[in-house]
Amino acid sequence: MHTRRGALVSLSFGISLALVVLVAASAHAAKAVNKPPTGKNRDLAVLEYERWIDTLKGNVKNFSKASARDVTIVVRFLDKKKKVLGVQRVSVGDLRSGDQSSWTMAIEERNRKATNYQFEVHAIWQ
User: Fold this and answer.
1) DSSP classification of residue 107
2) In this structure, are residues 106 and 55 in contact, taking their beta carbons and an 8 Å threshold?
3) Distance CA 8, CA 2 (A)
């Protein structure tokens, strides 16, 4: 009888712990949907981004009348004090005038403590 009760307690504890982790991850993901401030260069802009536990993803758009080749997004990962933890890059490819593209970046372990992000978008203009 004690073995069965112990197994039930362990199972209940495991399910409760799993629910807490899922709720916390969902809350973190929902809270991390942001619209970054627009920079001086409005020709290429990150429209929005979303942070999951180990993934950063978003959309970039070409507002210019020219085509952009080899579009690259540079992300600076910042802590609460705005200190740079690290820098990562993701290549998006080419964007014609008015085109938009989604991007996804696996966050390196050292950058996962980030609470803020700075985006730079680079391209070769045609």
Assistant:
1) P
2) yes
3) 10
Q: Tokens 């209940």 appear where?
A: 12
The residues, any chain, with a CB within 8 Å of residue 77's CB and separated by 6 or more, are 84, 85, 86, 87, 88, 107, 111, 114, 117
- Is the per-residue pLDDT at 19 higher than 70? no
Rounded to whole angstroms, the Cα distance separating 75 from 37 reads 13
* pLDDT interval class at 46 (50, 70, 90): very high
Are residues 83 and 50 both part of a single domain?
Answer: yes
pTM of the model: 0.68
Asked if residue 70 and residue 8 are part of one domain, the reply reads no
Question: Based on the structure, what is the number of domains in the chain?
Answer: 2
Q: 13 lies in which domain range?
A: 1-31
Whether the predicted pLDDT of 111 surpasses 70: yes
Q: Are 118 and 79 in contact (CB under 8 A)?
A: no
